[in-house]
Specification:
Helix content: over 70%
Structural class: mainly alpha
Radius of gyration: 24 Å
Order of helices and strands: HHHHHHEEEEHHHHH
Shape: elongated
Number of helices: 11
C-alpha cells in the first residue's frame, strides 16, 4: 500500500521535504513494511553523510595539522598570556601561515544542521502547507515517529512497547559514545606530550576542558530523549556514522605514519651502510 504524498502546490519547502521522505518510504515499503518511513530517514541520513564525506576528510586532515601546531600555539599563549588581543592576532597569523583553519573541524557538523532542523519541523508539525501531516502516524515498531520519549513513558511506561524502542536507541547511543570516549582519550593522551614539551604553565581552563570533552558524546542521550523519534533516528544514525568514519580516518592516519616510519628507518639504514 503506497504511503500518502504531499501533492499540494502550496505545501512549500517543508511540504517538498516531507514529500521526499514520503516517496522514499513508498519505495522502501516492500522491504521495511510499517517501518518504511523510519527506514527512509536512515537512508536519507546516510546520503547526507556521504555527500559530506569530502568535508569530513578535509576536517580530519586539518585536525592533524592543528595537532602538529600544538607546541607553537602553546608557546604563543605563554608569550602573550597578558595580551589576549595580540595573542589572537598571532594565532590567526600562525594558522594562515600554515594554511590551517581553526574552525575547519566544525564544517561537517554545521552542514548537517539544516537537514536536522527540516526533519525536526516536518515531524513536529500536525499540518504542512495546510494539509494533514501524513508522516506522523508512521512508526518504528510500536513508537510513532512524531512522538518523544515522554510520550512513550506515558503510553506503556519504560518497558512498554514504545519504551523498548527508546531503550534500544539509548543502548546503541551508549555503545557508540563509549567507543568514541575511548578513542578521544587515546587522542588527547597523545596530544598532551606536545603541550607539555612547550613548557610553561597550563592555560587556565584547558585542563578541565580536556578532561570534559571526551564525555560530550554521552550528551547525545539527552537529544534522543527530547526530540521526535524521527529526529532521534537521524541523530543516532549520524552519530554512529561519525564514530565509524573517524575510526577509519584515524586508521588511515596511523597507516600513513607507519609507512613514514618505515621509510625513515630504511633511509637511516641506507645511510648507516
Amino acid at each position: 500500500m503506497a504511503l500518502p504524498a504531499f501533492h499540494s502546490s502550496g505545501s512549500g519547502f517543508f511540504g517538498l521535504c516531507a514529500g521526499v521522505v514520503d516517496y522514499l518510504a513508498d519505495l522502501l515499503q516492500p522491504l521495511a513494511g510499517t517501518a518504511a518511513a523510519a527506514a527512509a530517514i536512515i537512508v536519507l541520513t546516510v546520503c547526507v553523510r556521504l555527500v559530506l564525506l569530502p568535508l569530513s576528510r578535509t576536517a580530519a586532515r586539518g585536525q592533524r595539522e592543528r595537532a602538529a601546531l600544538a607546541p607553537e600555539i602553546a608557546a604563543l599563549r605563554r608569550e602573550y598570556a597578558k595580551d589576549p588581543e595580540r595573542m589572537g592576532r598571532a594565532l590567526m597569523e600562525l594558522h594562515a601561515t600554515h594554511g590551517v583553519s581553526p574552525l575547519g573541524g566544525v564544517l561537517p557538523m554545521l552542514c548537517q544542521l539544516p537537514f536536522f532542523f527540516v526533519l525536526y519541523h516536518v515531524f513536529s508539525s500536525s499540518r504542512i502547507g495546510g494539509e494533514p501531516n501524513h508522516l506522523l502516524p508512521h512508526r518504528l515498531l510500536a513508537a510513532p515517529l512524531g512522538d518523544r520519549w515522554g510520550d512513550a513513558l506515558a503510553h506503556g511506561g519504560l518497558l512498554g512497547e514504545r519504551g523498548l524502542v527508546y531503550i534500544a536507541l539509548f543502548a546503541l547511543v551508549a555503545v557508540v559514545a563509549t567507543f568514541t570516549l575511548r578513542r578521544n582519550k587515546r587522542q588527547l593522551a597523545g596530544a598532551d606530550a606536545p603541550l607539555a614539551a612547550a613548557g610553561g604553565q597550563e592555560v587556565p581552563g584547558v585542563g578541565a576542558l580536556t578532561r570534559f570533552m571526551p564525555y560530550m558524546a554521552y550528551f547525545t542521550l539527552i537529544s534522543v530523549a527530547v526530540v521526535p523519534l524521527a529526529g532521534a533516528l537521524y541523530i543516532v544514525t549520524s552519530t554512529t556514522w561519525s564514530a565509524l568514519e573517524r575510526a577509519v580516518l584515524y586508521r588511515e592516519r596511523g597507516t600513513a605514519a607507519e609507512k613514514a616510519g618505515e621509510e625513515g628507518g630504511g633511509k637511516a639504514k641506507a645511510v648507516a651502510a
